[in-house]
Write a structure and sequence with these properties.
Blueprint lengths: L4 E4 L2 H19 L3 H5 L2 E9 L2 E4 H14 E16 L9 E14 L9 E14 L2 E16 L4 H5 L13 H14 L1
Parallel strand pairs: 2-7
Antiparallel strand pairs: 1-4, 2-3, 4-5, 5-6, 6-7
Length: 185
C-alpha cells in the first residue's frame, strides 16, 4: 500500500462509491444527463480528454457529443477505493477511486473515427461524503489507448424489437417501470 493511502475504504463506503461510478456509466450510455449530474457535487471539477471545467460545464460539453453517438457502452473493471492518509478509515469523508474501463462509441457516419472508436481509460476520482452520500468532487479521465471500432449496425438491427435506446424508451426503463407497478399493486 502506498504511503499516501491511509487504507482501503470500508465495504459499505466502497459499495456506495462503486454505485456512483456505475450510475455515471448508465447515465452516459442511456444519455440521461440528470443521472450523470447527480453523480457529482455541484462545484465538482472534471478533466475529461480535452475538456476541463465544472460539473455543469461538463454536462453542457458532453451532451452534444453524446447526441452525435448512436450508442456508447462503458465497462468498468478494476476499481480500487482508498482513504487518503490522515483520514479516519472508519469514518472517512474523502476517498480516492481509481477505475479502469473500456468504452465503445458508435456514431454517424459509420467509419468516421471521430465517432466510432473504443477507448481504454482510467477515472481517477476524489469522492467526498456529505450528509451520508458519496459523490465525485474531482475527476481526471486518463485515456490510455484509442482504436477504431465498428458497431456493425446491420447485424444489430436484425436482433429484434428490444434494441437499446439512448432515452427513457430503453428496455431498462420499461423494466423498472413494470417492476414498480407490480410492487405497488
Amino acid at each position: 500500500m502506498s504511503a499516501l493511502a491511509g487504507g482501503p475504504a470500508t465495504a459499505g463506503d466502497e459499495s456506495a462509491i462503486r454505485r456512483v461510478l456505475l450510475e455515471y456509466c448508465r447515465g452516459i450510455d442511456r444519455l440521461d444527463l440528470e443521472l450523470v449530474r447527480g453523480c457529482y457535487w455541484p462545484e465538482a471539477t472534471d478533466r475529461h480528454g480535452p475538456f476541463t471545467g465544472t460539473r455543469d460545464e461538463f454536462i453542457d460539453w458532453v451532451g452534444p457529443l453524446l447526441g452525435r453517438q448512436t450508442m456508447t457502452m462503458h465497462h468498468l473493471g478494476n476499481v480500487l477505493v482508498d482513504i487518503p492518509a490522515g483520514h479516519d478509515v472508519a469514518d472517512a469523508h474523502v476517498a480516492v477511486a481509481e477505475s479502469y474501463g473500456v468504452a465503445y462509441h458508435a456514431g454517424e457516419p459509420a467509419g468516421d473515427l471521430r465517432w466510432n472508436y473504443a477507448a481504454g481509460f482510467r477515472y481517477v476520482d476524489r469522492f467526498e461524503r456529505r450528509d451520508g452520500r458519496w459523490r465525485i468532487a474531482d475527476r481526471i479521465t486518463a485515456i490510455e489507448w484509442v482504436r477504431p471500432w465498428d458497431a456493425d449496425r446491420a447485424r444489430i438491427a436484425a436482433f429484434g424489437e428490444h434494441l437499446p435506446r439512448r432515452d427513457r424508451t430503453d428496455p431498462l426503463y420499461s423494466t423498472l417501470q413494470a417492476a414498480a407497478v407490480r410492487e405497488s399493486a
